[in-house]
Amino acid sequence: MLHTHLLIQLLQPPPTNRHALSFPAFTSRKFTTTTPAAAVPIRKSCFRNGVLNGVSWRSIKSSATKELSEVEEQDFKEPMKRAYPFHEIEPRWQRFWEENRTFRTPDDVDTSKPKFYVLDMFPYPSGAGLHVGHPLGYTATDILARVKRMQGFNVLHPMGWDAFGLPAEQYAIETGTHPKVTTMKNIARFRSQLKSLGFSYDWEREISTTEPEYYKWTQWIFLQLLKRGLAYQAEVPVNWCPALGTVLANEEVVDGVSERGGHPVIRKVLSLFITEQPMRQWILKITAYADRLLEDLDDLDWPESVKEMQRNWIGRSEGAELEFCVLNSDGQERDIKIIVYTTRPDTIFGSTYLVLAPEHFLLSSIVTTVQSKYVEEYKEIALRKSDLERTELQKEKTGVFSGSYAKNPANGEAIPIWVADYVLGSYGTGAIMAVPAHDTRDHEFALKYDIPICWVVTPNDINGDDFEKAYPGEGLIINSSSSTTSLDINGLSSKVAASKVIEWAEKTAHGKKKVNYKLRDWLFARQRYWGEPIPVSFLDESGERVPLPETELPLTLPELDDFTPTGTGEPPLSKAVSWVKTTDPLSGKPARRETSTMPQWAGSCWYYLRFMDPKNSEALVDKKKEMYWSPVDVYVGGAEHAVLHLLYSRFWHKVLYDIGVVSTKEPFKCVINQGIILGEVQYMAFKDQDGSYISAEAAATLGAQAQERIPEEKVTKSGEYFVLKEYPNIRLVARAHKMSKSRGNVINPDDVVSEYGADSLRLYEMFMGPFRDSKVWNTSGIEGVHRFLARTWRLIVGAPLPNGEYRDGTVVVDGDPTRDQLRSLHRCINKVTEEIDGTRFNTGISAMMEFINAAYKWDKHPRSIIESFVLLLSPYAPHMAEELWFRLGHESSLAHEIFPEADLAYLKDPTIVLPVQINGKMRGTIEVEEACTEENAFNLASSDERISKFLDGKTIKKRIYVPGKILNVILDNKTVKVGSQ
Q1: pLDDT digits (tens, 9 = 90+) for 576-628
Q2: Cα distance between residue 400 and residue 366, in whole Å
Q3: Can you give the pLDDT at residue 608?
Q4: DSSP 8-state class, residue 809
Q5: Most confident of 240-244, 245-249, 261-265, 535-539
Q6: Nearest 5°: CA angle at 749, between 746 and 753?
Q7: Is the distance from CB of 744 to CB of 818 less than 8 angstroms?
Q8: How many Å apart are CA 220 and CA 214, to the nearest integer?
Q9: What is the bridge-based pairing of β-strands 317-327 and 333-342?
């Protein structure tokens, strides 16, 4: 029986896990590290005649007390006062859920029922653990999962770990600890913290990308990509950090230096140390799916901002590739042609110079001897910058002249060839025709280096020579005719002119129409240890690439004592000599394994599929299970993953769709980005050189020398501004920043749970504001929702006894509810349900607060009303709800009870305004109940001051009454007593 099971749990000593049971007194607003709390109190009232299952109360209490430490024993003797006993309730129900597998989704579900697959973007388990920003999204998905379970859906709500990656490897290098050890420790901490918050995950489906049973299928997917020509090798520049001796991903480079350590990073093609041959990098051909990735965005229920970011990242554009012939020193054409891509072929006559990217493959063939030194110096500087830095619109444009010229094919004029880092070798052809009159960057560059500017497009027939700034728009073409080339587009619109230029270029072999993408193929290899091995080897004899047979998967990481970077660019796996040297299982020939590993993105590209069938050793996912659970119905995570993770996942999913592994074209039906929780507001004061405070608005003028952080208790609000209490004329700057260790504003959820309970944290994070908006953490806010939960507890359980404990059971009654009580309940049900469906959790909580306020005015609290409210509260505050449900006399968990539904009859206004006519003329209105009888309506009209004067002393012939519509009194000359028939 559930009652017996829970009573026995009360007698168990607390687990040693501090995340589940470190609850200090509810006395302070500051969150600090805590010592373990007292054991869960054993209530003598749980026993009948002092005995439970043949064991006496006295013997059990004595036995339990002996197991406590001196500190715990002291705490046991002096229980701490709390607003309600969350310190007992929450660990008890967490144990119950785990032991009873309450949230387990069976492997074989009833597929006739609707399904709901709700998923969090699984976390990287860092050593720092969770901060209070993490539970924001997790709480939202948990509310949705709990409600859908109660509404009869089969719910899939799993959790796992994106555990490969650079941070663990860097920590391992710094401390000498193997990354696997660090990763497992961090996972254990994360798991413990998540369980302490009462999330209803199916922990039996837990996965980690570092487990061979998982990455076997990551490797399998790679082999499918390889079979279809979607994985290939090429010599490409990478981010090389000499100080770290390793290659860095783009996201690991900030302002030209490594994110870790701040070491200089350069772009270069790596060479193998032994052979000096260029190191070929693995690349995935995501560009082959560019059109599908773009087109299928339209049907997704995703934030429009995310879809637009993906559209921009893919960057499809239509234009032309045009050829410019390089000239020698005598002005004659050389056998070298520079191909440029442009979306504005209509502006070709305005091209007054070309620009090549510093990494362009033709650059060494074009640069003159005189300019060679300057170009090499410029290349060295440019290769230290990231692509983002180079294309930053606000940065000053820089470049160097190559010394050579090319011929503009439209007019035959010689134009200079420049080298500039605002052109990327990875986009288009790595070269552009610069049109300074009609491109802002080109215009800025031309002004700086005194390059001619030729206006060729004018809006509304305005003379182009009048422009002072670049005009990038479309219009009518001017200054665009050449008798030499027989190309004349003057007077045409931009669109018509563009088509005519392309037609001319194709006829004269100067170019062709071209569709281009900003999207680049995915650099997939990492010269790292802590990642999935790439299942490919190379024959010693010929260097031929040989994929590992699928039956040999997984190819596991070798155990290495030394996983530090080699310093040569070769991956750390090259140190595992016995692992690298292998034999091709098909030919028996000696071979060498690939020593690069996959990037962290690999494991996170498809994990949502593995959750559907996590124990399957024969297939990535069972077809029937995939067809039932796909796609993910709701996917929640940060907006920072809007492009790379979501784009890579969509790419892999489409490949899997093409080969018949999955049944849907897209992996995620609905994506929701939660807002960021910022740290508490920080108040800063300015000081002058003498150390005296100066007001914020005068700081710039007077020259502030220092800033000082001011504690909140020394700050007050004055109008729109914050000022010092002691000096109200000193205005402060109030800012909230993203939580970070460096700012010292990180709030640990363990401390919040200890002081207020997990339900309070869950409720507060949902109550802070709209789910998708950024919000500022405020301790007084969590105190407010904690008081709401305490009021809810006291309303249902009653006031505490003199010793501070609470009676068993509740104070509810079994009588029938009043109509007003039913109306309050069903309005609350309706509002909470609507707001959960719309992920407007904060307004749903407001509705529950209004209900509790109303309920405190009632003399009695009927069981049927209170039970429905407890079910309504349960997705938000599951621990308290389970405890109240148990106290209300139920034998099983409420997790699978039916979620309340609003009765529309109680949502209508209880009264209506009824028009009253005398002899067909409107004489006033009265307010009546919808079911009001004719007699009652007439009596109300007779007593109304405005209407009764028309009836006094009059004879009533008859009354016409249409319920809810109208009352019409017909008078005649007979004297009839008002109110009678």
Answers
A1: 999 999 999 989 999 999 999 999 899 999 999 999 999 999 999 999 999 99
A2: 13
A3: 98
A4: S
A5: 535-539
A6: 145
A7: no
A8: 10
A9: antiparallel
Residues β-bridged to residue 269: none
What's the sign of the alpha-carbon dihedral 406, 445, 429, 386? positive
241: closest CA among 222, 260, 227, 226?
260
- Give the Cα-Cα-Cα angle 505, 509, 514 (nearest 5 degrees): 55
721: number of CA atoms within 13 Å, CB side?
A: 14
What pTM, to 2 d.p., does this model score? 0.81
Least confident interval from 76-80, 137-141, 519-523:
76-80
Q: How far apart are CA 285 and CA 517, in angstroms?
A: 13
609-618 own/partner pairs: CB under 8 Å, 24+ apart: 609/656, 609/662, 609/667, 610/160, 610/207, 610/214, 610/217, 611/119, 611/156, 611/158, 611/160, 611/205, 611/207, 612/156, 613/107, 614/158, 614/205, 614/206, 614/207, 615/107, 617/213
Is 528 exposed, middle or buried (CB count within 10 Å of its CB: 0-12, 13-18, 19+)?
buried
Question: What local confidence, expressed as pLDDT, does residue 877 receive?
Answer: 98
Contact 657, 665 (CB under 8 A): yes
Angstrom distance (rounded) from CA 802 to CA 780: 28
| Six token digits for residue 614 | 């996590």
Cross-strand pairs, 354: 417, 433
Say whether 277 sits in a helix, a strand or coil.
Answer: coil
Q: Give Cβ neighbours of residue 231 (< 8 Å, ≥ 6 apart).
A: 222, 225, 282, 283, 284, 285, 524
Q: Is 119 helix (H, G, I), strand (E, B) or coil?
A: strand
> What span, in angstroms and rounded, lies between the C-alpha atoms of 118 and 144?
8
739 near 679, Cβ under 8 Å? yes
Q: How far apart are CA 693 and CA 697, in angstroms?
A: 12
- Cα–chain center distance at 699: 38
- Please state the φ and ψ torsions of residue 730, each to the nearest 5 degrees: -95, 105
Q: DSSP of 702-727, one letter per residue?
A: HT--EEEEE-GGGEEEETTEEEESS-
Q: Is the pLDDT of residue 32 over 50?
A: no
Nearest-5° Cα angle at 67, 63 to 69: 140
Burial status of residue 513 (CB atoms within 10 A of its CB: 0-12, 13-18, 19 or more): middle
Kindly give, in sequence order, each residue whose CB lies less than 8 Å from that of residue 179, ignoring residues fewer than 6 positions away: 168, 169, 171, 172, 529, 530, 563
582 sits in which H/E element? strand 581-583
Q: How far, in Å, are 768, 774, 812, 825 from residue 792 at the CA level?
A: 19, 29, 12, 14
Phi (first) and psi of residue 830, to 5 degrees:
-60, -45
Predicted pLDDT of residue 275: 43
Please tell me the least confidently modeled range out of 409-418, 449-458, 689-698: 689-698
Residue 508, helix vs strand vs coil: coil
CA angle 95, 97, 102 (to 5 degrees): 160
How far is Cα 384 from Cα 401, in angstroms, rounded to an integer? 20
Contact criterion met (CB below 8 Å) for 634 and 300: no
**Which residues face 48 on adjacent strands?**
51
Q: Once rounded to an integer, what is the mean pLDDT over residues 104-123?
A: 96
Work out the burial of residue 324: count CB atoms within 10 Å of its CB; fewer than 13 is exposed, 13-18 middle, 19 or more buried.
buried
- The CA distance from 531 to 600, in Å, is 7
Q: Is 348 in contact with 413 (CB distance < 8 Å)?
A: no
What is the residue type of 859?
A: D
Helix/strand/coil (H/E/C) assignment for every residue in 223-237: HHHHHCCCEEEECCC
* Better-predicted residue by pLDDT, 644 or 975: 644
Q: What is the Cα–Cα distance from 339 to 516, expressed in whole angstroms?
A: 13
Strand ranges for 651-796 from DSSP E: 671-673, 677-678, 682-687, 693-694, 706-710, 715-718, 721-724, 733-735, 775-776
How far, CA to CA in Å, does 726 sit from each of 62, 580, 713, 723, 859? 57, 71, 11, 9, 49
